[in-house]
Description:
Order of helices and strands of chain A: EEEEEEEEEEE
Oligomer: heterodimer
Number of strands of chain A: 11
Distance between the termini of chain B: 41 Å
Largest sheet of chain A: 7 strands, mixed
Amino acid sequence: GAVVSQHPSWVICKSGTSVKIECRSLDFQATTMFWYRQFPKQSLMLMATSNEGSKATYEQGVEKDKFLINHASLTLSTLTVTSAHPEDSSFYICSARLDRVNEQFFGPGTRLTVL
Amino acid sequence: GDSVTQMEGPVTLSEEAFLTINCTYTATGYPSLFWYVQYPGEGLQLLLKATKADDKGSNKGFEATYRKETTSFHLEKGSVQVSDSAVYFCALSPFYSSASKIIFGSGTRLSIRP
């Protein structure tokens, strides 16, 4: 139980285009999901906290207009990287919190490469 | 601000060797401390946790003790197996975080030789 999926697992896009990444909790409902970014050989950096039915809370330094987050249902949160540039290339990881145990369960990540 | 520092990898050991991966933290008050593991091609999984000083978290033969005096949470295992090969992340959740915010270390890649 407590499985989180991400789609796609990897994506390559051209500079200036937008890319959407989906995060789904497959066997539980999650009012809160989290989006992280990981650079090579570095730690996961929290980008934003996604709350079902309300606006996401962004960490300091994260552009909310560039990284659009939508948590439209209790099992799905999406991250859209708008007008992507090569510096946005990274590994994006989501997690979903299972409230009854107050634990985050992580997706396998999405590797984004912007050409 | 709060942060986690863990030993750089990669760490390569022979099967049945003793493992220690060092982790220290900087935080206000009493954070919760975690070790996560990421096996190849999979998402991060919680390996063990400790929520207060002197607590010992344990799972799958791994142990870590919350040491407030040294601000450390070192991961240990007495006899590693090939199947333990993975990336290990030390992490903390600040005591003031009501939304389970987690701050991660940079990760340590562990490779076990048969």
